[in-house]
Specification:
Layout (H helix, E strand, L loop, with lengths): L4 E11 L4 E6 L12 E4 L2 E11 L2 E6 L5 H5 L5 E5 L10 H4 L3 E4 L2 E11 L4 E6 L3 E5 L5 E5 L4 E4 L11
Parallel strand pairs: 7-12
Antiparallel strand pairs: 1-2, 1-6, 2-5, 3-4, 3-6, 4-5, 7-8, 8-9, 9-10, 11-12
């Protein structure tokens, strides 16, 4: 399901005395958050004055957050981005959960969870049976966020209760 906002990280601390916040990004790396000029925190919209990388985190200067006290008030908050600002071909795990999965035109279940393994992600699909489907183009034939449907190719061993 295409979401209006996507969770992209969490504010873990403040930085300096001018109101910067340190964000632990939930994307593949901190480079991802540098491309956004607006964010949401706690249901409120903010403009990003600057975003820079510090090791595995981002340091954000948010418009209107000008003191360490104002930044401290945002600690532990989730940073969201607008789906419209993200690349169109990028799909977040949150958008896949609950998606209907079809194999050879037949519904086999819905995505219950997206597991993140070092080699690739794995979709846990539950219906009459449970399947663990690697998120690689050999098995994922198409993903339609607008209609909330994914087409997959199954092979022996993907069904968890199979002998």
């Amino acid at each position: 399901m295409k979401l209006q906002y996507l969770q992209a990280g969490q504010i873990v601390s403040t930085h300096g005395i001018r109101g910067e916040v340190k964000v632990l990004p939930w994307a593949d790396g901190p480079e991802f958050l540098t491309q956004f000029s607006r964010i949401r925190i706690g249901g409120r919209d903010y403009q990003v004055d600057s975003c820079r990388i510090q090791k595995t985190c981002n340091l954000l200067k948010i418009q209107g957050v000008d003191t360490v006290e104002a930044a401290q008030a945002l600690r532990e908050q989730i940073v969201e981005i607008y789906r419209d600002d993200a690349p169109k071909d990028l799909i977040f795990a949150a958008e896949l959960e609950g998606m209907t999965v079809l194999a050879e035109g037949q519904e086999i279940g819905k995505i219950q969870e997206v597991l993140d393994y070092p080699g690739n992600k794995v979709y846990v699909v539950k219906g009459e049976h449970e399947y663990m489907i690697p998120a690689v183009k050999q098995f994922i034939l198409s993903t339609d966020l607008d209609n909330n449907v994914m087409q997959v190719q199954l092979i022996r061993g993907m069904r968890t209760d199979e002998n």
